[in-house]
Amino acid sequence: MAEELYTTKEAMLYSQRVAQLSKALWKAVEKDWQQWIKPYDLNINEHHILWISYHLKGASISDVAKFGVMHVSTAFNFSKKLEERGYLTFSKRDDDKRNTYVELTEAGTTLILEMNNNYHQTSHAILEGSLPLRDLYGRFPEFLDVMAVIRNVYGEDFIDIFERSFQNFSSSLDEPLAESLLKK
Amino acid sequence: MAEELYTTKEAMLYSQRVAQLSKALWKAVEKDWQQWIKPYDLNINEHHILWISYHLKGASISDVAKFGVMHVSTAFNFSKKLEERGYLTFSKRDDDKRNTYVELTEAGTTLILEMNNNYHQTSHAILEGSLPLRDLYGRFPEFLDVMAVIRNVYGEDFIDIFERSFQNFSSSLDEPLAESLLKK
């Protein structure tokens, strides 16, 4: 009984702690993100959709929704707007007739690369706030406990898409293509 | 030059990683939080204001805004609504005429205690998703790297208020007062 009570207390303290921490973290991230994309007249969901489509080299709307943590209707509606602006196209795939896929156009790809190129034009509080950790440990923190919790909440395929997009992001930053496209 | 390029790449990978992780974490937290407070006709900011006022035993609007990570006008407007519903009162303090303070009424205190009591009536995905970590390490994760980043972004006084409110939360969960108030 006493043990059970302790656990309830522990659970409540823990979940309120995560709630406050994640609210503070997200609000800072959101501000950085908004400042970065502001010159391009995009909201966070729109940029997220472009980012996912770019790094997954095309994605189904349901993958975009899942990985972008937004409703399917939100993913669809914002994708439509991006299509109207000429940044992506909708298509069906022969091996998967049920899902709708989005893929970046050349204009969409150029936009993503240009935004990456201008990343340092705005301030990034999270980055600044992480530099002391990088100095101390020799690298940026990995938030392994956050990753573990997210893996349990969103499932293995969320983490798979996550890692896949970051592998692509990492190699895309090495490609000289980025430079040449921007100089067009 | 090569070293600088590496750092830019590392910085971009890191900050996008934090962005995606914190969005996913926050969306799950937000869902848990909303489900928990739904029966009480409160939004997250309103509950957050009550929670802060309760645990700081009264707080200035600017402390509420700072610690609740919301605009001062948001903190003020939602506090007004909570005042209209009889959950809190506004006051000035003799030693600090410039700031407006909010304090819970008895109805507000009872509400907070009742909500704590009904915490386990709704599901908490974050809590569930953290249990494997608790099994493994013998306690819930502490997200020390997230705390360190937040300390650098929001400053030492944010962490001070954070720790103060959790010390109070922790001891309030031990008090038999909670039970007696609810049984009124």
Automatic annotation (TrEMBL), chains A, B:
Domain HTH marR-type residue range list: 11-155
Name assigned to this protein: Transcriptional regulator
Keywords, alphabetical: DNA-binding, Transcription, Transcription regulation
PANTHER family documented for this protein: DNA-BINDING TRANSCRIPTIONAL REPRESSOR SCOC (PTHR33164:SF58), TRANSCRIPTIONAL REGULATOR, MARR FAMILY (PTHR33164)
Source organism per UniProt: Caryophanon tenue
Signal peptide limits: none
GO biological process: response to stress
Molecular function per GO: DNA binding; DNA-binding transcription factor activity
Coiled-coil segments: none
Source domain of life: Bacteria
SMART domains given in the database record: HTH_MARR
InterPro entries: HTH_MarR-typ, MarR/SlyA-like, Tscrpt_reg_MarR-type_CS, WH-like_DNA-bd_sf, WH_DNA-bd_sf
